[in-house]
Backbone:
């Protein structure tokens, strides 16, 4: 019997967190290449520290002259991303940061395994396992601790950027310990919020007075009680933030990116990878499938696992777990998934429309639990497969 009464904790980090700065830069470079050529190949990693950003990895365009031109654009892309996040610190400023671009052409040996040819279908960009998860405990079918942790930081970023709270800085972290009763979230036992601030005279109490109204605005009514423990900027001053305070690296916040630890993770990062890389596209497909299983009423909770081999088109396995909440046999759900969606890398990209410049927006506040957008962003959050799944089971 699954536990029904417990406390579960998840954390989120803001777009100005050093690792998220790197995710944003990597995904901004990816978007630039996909805007030029939907079939562009990108595997971009970013490292950031005091006054320096280093870009590395592999890229590929069909036109080599255009590839050289886009390499020259990389520093401008980096500076624009840092500026939008809001960094104008003395030791990390969009206008003065030193940028080293070490991107190079994609390995021909990797390309030969991925590319379609006369005698083979397009294969997966790597081996690996990917998980998707959905639960009906929130309207967006996400675990409550991570979803509300994201929402708090997203709201604080809004009021920082629109000038309502000008003393807040870009770097921030939130953490919620959510109380579950009968398997449903009902309250918060503790809140941890650390945010960079620009006024050195501000104390932890000052920062709490700023952020508390926004936290209360985000959380469901009644979740905060007199027993809720608050830790706001518990170390005191937090003026030095971002890559000047701590080095950042692409792909180091994969639990923040997904389900906050409430579901398994295959281990592969998303940011900076084009959608031929199943680390990204198949994880999106697994979330899409899990969400549609729940939307179809086949389960209250669902985990989907997919696995792939490099250069091989079809998944090696499809696994479904409804955690004892299902209205259908998990094996029947697995068979239905195989019927209603083409889970080859090409099939996923076509079904979800992934060959588009839609990735910079995913780099902070979670890849899941977001609203599908008109230009194809967050297409994996749609529930348009629910009817077909229900019929196929």
Residues:
């Amino acid at each position: 019997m699954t536990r029904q009464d417990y406390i579960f904790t998840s954390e989120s980090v803001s777009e100005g967190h050093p690792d998220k700065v790197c995710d944003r830069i990597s995904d901004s470079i990816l978007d630039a290449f996909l805007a030029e050529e939907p079939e562009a190949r990108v595997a971009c990693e970013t490292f950031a520290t005091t006054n320096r950003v280093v870009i590395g990895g592999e890229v590929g365009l069909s036109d080599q002259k255009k590839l050289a031109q886009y390499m020259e654009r990389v520093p401008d892309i980096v500076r624009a991303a840092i500026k939008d996040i809001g960094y104008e610190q003395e030791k990390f400023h969009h206008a003065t940061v030193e940028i080293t671009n070490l991107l190079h052409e994609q390995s021909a040996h990797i390309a030969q395994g991925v590319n379609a040819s006369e005698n083979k279908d397009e294969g997966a960009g790597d081996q690996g396992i990917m998980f998707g998860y959905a639960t009906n405990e929130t309207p967006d079918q996400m675990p409550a601790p991570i979803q509300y942790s994201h929402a708090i930081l997203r709201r604080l970023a809004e009021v920082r950027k629109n000038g309502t709270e000008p003393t807040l800085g870009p770097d921030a972290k939130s953490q919620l310990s959510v109380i579950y009763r009968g398997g449903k979230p009902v309250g918060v036992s503790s809140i941890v919020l650390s945010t960079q601030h620009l006024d050195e005279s501000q104390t932890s109490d000052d920062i709490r007075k700023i952020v508390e109204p926004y936290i209360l605005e985000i959380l469901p009514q009644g979740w905060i009680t007199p027993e809720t423990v608050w830790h706001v900027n518990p170390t005191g001053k937090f003026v030095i933030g971002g890559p000047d305070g701590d080095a950042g690296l692409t792909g180091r916040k994969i639990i923040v990116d997904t389900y906050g630890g409430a579901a398994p993770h295959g281990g592969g990062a998303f940011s900076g990878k084009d959608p031929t890389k199943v680390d990204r596209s198949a994880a999106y497909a697994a979330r899409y499938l899990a969400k549609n299983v729940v939307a179809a009423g086949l389960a209250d909770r669902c985990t989907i696992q997919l696995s792939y081999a490099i250069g091989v088109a079809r998944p090696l396995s499809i696994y479904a777990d409804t955690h004892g909440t299902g209205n259908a046999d998990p094996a029947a759900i697995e068979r239905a998934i195989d019927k209603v969606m083409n889970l080859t890398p090409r099939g996923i990209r076509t079904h979800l429309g992934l060959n588009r410049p839609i990735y910079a927006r995913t780099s902070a506040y979670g890849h899941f639990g977001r609203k599908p957008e008109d230009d194809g962003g967050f297409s994996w959050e749609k529930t348009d497969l629910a009817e077909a799944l229900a019929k196929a089971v």
Q: What stands out?
A: The mean pLDDT is 94. The CA atoms of residues 68 and 105 lie 10 Å apart. The first strand starts at residue 6 and ends at 13.
